[in-house]
Specification:
The chain contains three helices and two strands. By secondary structure, the chain is mainly alpha-helical. The protein has one domain. Strands 1-2 form a two-stranded antiparallel sheet. A hairpin with a 2-residue loop joins strand 1 and strand 2. Helix 1 packs antiparallel against helix 2. The N and C termini lie far apart (about 65 Å).
C-alpha cells in the first residue's frame, strides 16, 4: 500500500525578507556587498573618512534605488503609449483554395 503525503506548495507569493520581496532581496544584497567592496578599496587607497562616505553612499543609494524599483512591482512591463498598426504580409496564393471553399459554403 502506498503512503500519501500532503505537499505544501506555499501561498504562491514571493519570498519577503525585511520589506524586500522576490528578486529585490538579491538587489539589496548586491548593493550591500558592492558598498562594502568599494568602501574597503577607497579606505585602502585614499583615506578612512572618504572610504566610510563611499560605503554609506553606495549602500544607502543602492537600497533606496532598490526600494523605489520595488514599488513599481516585481514584473515591470513597458507601458508604451500610442496606436500601433502591425502590417501583415500574407501571401494570397496560399489562401486562394480556402477562399473558394468559404465562398462555396456561404452561397447556399
Amino acid at each position: 500500500m502506498e503512503k500519501s503525503f500532503a505537499v505544501y506548495k506555499g501561498l504562491q507569493k514571493p519570498l519577503v525578507y525585511r520589506g524586500f520581496s522576490g528578486k529585490f532581496i538579491y538587489w539589496g544584497i548586491a548593493s550591500l556587498l558592492s558598498g562594502l567592496v568599494l568602501g574597503a578599496l577607497v579606505m585602502a587607497l585614499f583615506s578612512m573618512l572618504l572610504g566610510v562616505l563611499v560605503l554609506a553612499a553606495c549602500i544607502g543609494g543602492g537600497l533606496a534605488y532598490t526600494l523605489s524599483r520595488q514599488k513599481q512591482g516585481l514584473f515591470v512591463k513597458s507601458r508604451a503609449q500610442g496606436i500601433y498598426h502591425f502590417q501583415t504580409k500574407i501571401n494570397p496564393k496560399i489562401y486562394e483554395g480556402s477562399q473558394r471553399i468559404q465562398d462555396a459554403l456561404y452561397r447556399h
